[in-house]
Amino acid sequence: MTRLFSTNALRDLVIVSAVSLLAGCTTSTTEVEVPASATKPGVTRTGEVYLLRGLANVFSTGMDGIGSKMKAKGLNVKVSNHTAWKSIANDIIRRSKVRGGVSYPIVIMGHSFGAGASAKMATYLGQNGIKVSYVAAFDPSHTNYVGANISKVSNFYVSGQDGAASHNVILEGPGFRGRLENINVGKDPQYRVNHFNVEKNPKIHTKVINTTYGLTRRLR
Question: Which among 49, 46, 43, 60 is positioned nearest to 88, based on CA atoms?
Answer without folding.
Answer: 49
